[in-house]
Design goal:
Elements: E1 4-6, H1 8-17, E2 21-25, E3 31-34, E4 41-43, H2 46-55, E5 58-63, E6 66-71
Antiparallel strand pairs: 1-5, 2-3, 2-4, 5-6
């Protein structure tokens, strides 16, 4: 499977359909999608998620319904 870069807005749409929320690993700048059940993650808002991706030069990639956040 080839991972293809997608827009943040498309990633947010996919995440919302899957019941995922934006999260940050507590004590770090790392972001990821979460269902909100992991105590090591704190839920953040979508604007903060977008800002963090931009500041850290990260991109959301998708393949076959799977999403991954990686460096551009």
């Amino acid at each position: 499977m080839v991972m293809e870069a997608i827009s943040v807005d498309k990633a947010i749409d996919i995440a919302k359909r899957k019941g995922l929320k934006p999260g940050r690993v507590k004590g770090t700048k790392g972001v990821q999608f979460t269902k909100g059940k992991n105590p090591r993650l704190e839920i953040i808002d979508w604007d903060e998620f977008k800002t963090t991706l931009g500041k850290r030069k990260l991109q959301v990639y998708e393949s076959g319904g799977w999403m991954k956040i990686m460096k551009k």
